[in-house]
Amino acid sequence: KPGEYNVEVPVGYYTQVVGLGTSPSDVVFTAGKGVWCPEGTASVETGSLNTFWRGAENFQTKADYSWFGYKGMMWAASQAAPVRRVVVDNDLLLYMYREGEEAADFASGGYVANSQVRGSMVGGSEQQFFTRNSEVNWEGSVWNMNFVGVEGAPESHCGNQEGEPMVSIDKTPTVAEKPFISIV
Fold it and tell me: Tens digit of pLDDT for each residue in 80-105?
């Protein structure tokens, strides 16, 4: 319901955190980690490749937990794990980095729409990700990142000559948005 929540919510399989306000700023998470998605298998190099079936929608997070040099919300998920209508006051990380090792764990596929990230949206080891109708400050990734109607998206390019392949389209064609429930 609308209000502020000083809780940390690790989002697991078959779980969705949904704010019931008319705008994302009606439901605000203020705890250090806030709403976050850890990879499903932190003890093996699979990373978030098997972290599916969860979601985060229609809230604001003031998360400021320090994740390997970044501060904010972690969403280390792969397919079937959308983030919609979320305002992230700090950074949004799309992968996990295992402490004590030199590389990030794998992450592949995901979806962010109608969101605002005020810090950096950090792709890291993420690949095959889709972002639509959002405001971000994009930073790093592996390949096949797609942006449609995204302010702050990287320039489109193919191949690995100037970084990893990216597709950025300035405007979104007409789409029907997913409806949401609100309590007034």
Answer: 999 999 999 999 999 888 766 667 78
pTM attached to this predicted model: 0.93
110 in Cβ contact with 162 (< 8 Å):
no
CA–CA dist 122, 72 (Å, integer): 11
> Is the Cβ–Cβ distance between 48 and 105 less than 8 Å?
yes
Asked whether the beta carbons of 72 and 119 are under 8 A apart, the reply is yes
Any idea what DSSP says for residue 25?
Answer: G
Backbone angles phi, psi at 36, to 5 degrees: -150, 155
pLDDT digits (tens, 9 = 90+) for 8-64: 999 999 999 999 999 999 999 999 999 999 887 655 567 788 888 999 999 999 999
Contacts 24+ apart (CB under 8 A), 135-144: 136/92, 136/112, 141/94, 141/166
